[in-house]
Amino acid sequence: MSADSNFRLSDRYQQLKGQLHLHLIRLLEDRGILINEWSDAKAAEFIRGQVRAYVNENRVPINQAETTLLADDTLDELVGFGPLQQLIEQDDVDDIVVNGPNSVYTERGGRLVSEAVRFSSNAHILRVAQRILAPLGRRLDESTPMVDARLPDGSRVNAIIPPLALDGPCLSIRRFSKQALTEAELIDSGSVSQDVLDFLRASVEARENIIVVGGTGSGKTTFLNMISQWIAESERILTIEDAAELRLHHGHVVRLETRPPNLEGERAVSARDLVRNALRMRPDRIIVGEVRGDEVLDMLQAMNTGHDGSMTTLHANSPRDAIHRLQLLAGFAGFAGDERNFLHQVASAIDMIVHVARLADGQRRLLSVQRVGVMGDHTLELVPEFVFDADSGEHLRYGRAA
């Protein structure tokens, strides 16, 4: 660990930063300075000057490098997201999770890494979380102890505090790359082969209905975003998401986002509401960021009634599990028909299931592409088109029932 990291993690540093933070807040209030309205350069120059003056006047025993570090961190406390600001600014950070004042992790390259940053207390975590959420119009307090929201850059933030979080406030930020992954990047990383991409491009252009399935963090949304670029520019796309993550570079996209209930538990707008409304908006294709509730029935109906080429993602560990999960969600949504009728509806609605996963080494990889076949005696036929072979490290072309 570097000397800077040791200094940052020390109790002495946290105490000093807290004292300096309060000193600067009083100074800004006394002078009537609205530092949030200043440019980044002007704010940084002012804070660094004030920190140097504070260190000299109070004879704080730190060197010049430590003074600069203290100034930068204090600036982050005043106009940024505190200890998280330096992590948010790093392009290789995919996720940030805070489990407590001394437990901050990031995901880099598919692996969680402990970071040399800390908060001074649980109250410090809560203050930063509230600062993140305030511009979004969201509250985080005892009456609303759990919040899920989307930041302006598309990142998702989840915060949960006591009494729901027993050991103190927890914060999770899921970041998204400003640039969508390209075909070449996916091929170079070994996630997929050119043959698979050519096959899926033809499927998208042929307006086949596709579901991308996988576990949490497997890259479902990233992959859906990538294959959606093959939709013709002449088509009108409607996207429906709980938190807008898709970044479609397309000339005719209408983006819809669900709304949680207000403090009175009213005025929520669900994915099902949006899917139903989307059918009245003359879509050529409907893309649901993730099917996770009673919208499953409306999505399947849309795929069955002329909205070919629609796409979605689903949490499932395999294509076969995806079929079972669709049945489970339909049951929760009040589907009253028998299993065979529902599977017939699935067979008519879905053409292809793409399975992606994050492996033990953090690598994200497409594991299979399977075509939804016809109903058998008691089950739905799945026909593999491509399957990843771990021994050879290649995606092999198949043509047999699974």
TrEMBL record:
Q: What is this protein called?
A: CpaF family protein
Give the family per the record: Belongs to the GSP E family.
Q: Which organism is it from?
A: Salinisphaera aquimarina
Q: Write down the SUPFAM superfamilies for this protein, in alphabetical order.
A: P-loop containing nucleoside triphosphate hydrolases (SSF52540)
Q: Which residues form the Bacterial type II secretion system protein E domain?
A: 79-359
Organism lineage: Bacteria, Pseudomonadati, Pseudomonadota, Gammaproteobacteria, Salinisphaerales
What are the transmembrane regions? none
